[in-house]
Amino acid sequence: MTAQNGSESDLLRRLPPVRGRLTANAPIGPMTWFRVGGPAEALFRPADTEDLAAFLAALPPDIPVTVIGVGSNLLVRDGGIPGIVIRLGRGFVDIVPGRGQVETGAGALDLNVALTAAEAGIAGLEFLSGIPGTVGGGFRTNAGAYGTEFKDALISADALDRRGQLHTVTPAEMGLS
User: Fold this and answer.
1) How many whole angstroms from its chain centre is CA 173?
2) pLDDT tens digits, 21-45
3) DSSP E strand stretches across the chain
4) What is the residue-wise DSSP string for 144-157?
5) CATH 3.40.50.410 is the classification of domain 2-90
6) What is the pLDDT of residue 2?
7) CB 174 within 8 A of CB 156
């Protein structure tokens, strides 16, 4: 674990070990497009899916968890965000085009997915070019543009629950219909 930003907080002492980065009292405002808002009590940037799954599995259940993307549609109150804020980074941005579909990490920017799909001759993801943010946020909110929403293009998603268990879910299973 890498602890940054001053002395370890009480919260950091309760957290499981990680390979990614943990930061106490991390400023979140600068991570949002509006550039306003208070700090996260603790910010976790997991190294990869395995790091995130292990962290969630060992995280005490009373600690609140908030997941953010690149902050394109996020306002943070001046008082900040209690508990753990998880921000996906480099280990979650891969974009792999295949036969008529694209596999991507939740941290990949929507625009980059649209461009990669177009370069690979894959149609149906053009709408992503009009959505700011990441695939994870777009899926969670069923974001859309130009008459198409995530539920219309998504086949399935691999998602971790609060206990660190991996599930493959369809848009319908996520309540996107």
Assistant:
1) 19
2) 999 999 999 999 999 999 999 999 9
3) 2-4, 21-27, 39-45, 65-68, 81-87, 95-97, 102-104, 144-145, 148-149, 157-160, 166-169
4) EETTEEHHHH---E
5) no
6) 44
7) no
**CATH topology for the 93-169 domain:** 3.30.465
pTM of the model: 0.90
Q: Is 100 exposed, middle or buried (0-12, 13-18, 19+ CB in 10 A)?
A: exposed
- Look at residues 42, 47, 51 and name the one whose alpha carbon lies nearest to residue 4: 42
Kindly report, residue by residue over 137-166, the tens digit of the pLDDT: 999 999 999 999 999 999 999 999 999 999
pLDDT tens digits, one per residue of 62-90: 999 999 999 998 999 999 999 999 999 99
**CB of 133 within 8 A of CB of 70?**
yes
Q: Is the dihedral of CA 67, 69, 47, 80 positive or negative?
A: negative
Round to the nearest angstrom and report the end-to-end CA distance of the chain: 40
Determine the Cα–Cα distance for residues 143 and 113; give it in Å rounded to an integer: 14
Q: What is the C-alpha separation between 133 and 87, in angstroms, rounded?
A: 12
Structure-token match 């008082």, residue found: 79
* Alpha carbons 19 and 52: distance in angstroms, whole number: 9
What ranges do the domains of the chain cover?
A: 2-90, 93-169
Token pair of 83 as six digits: 């508990």
pLDDT at 6: 46
Average pLDDT over residues 49-73: 97
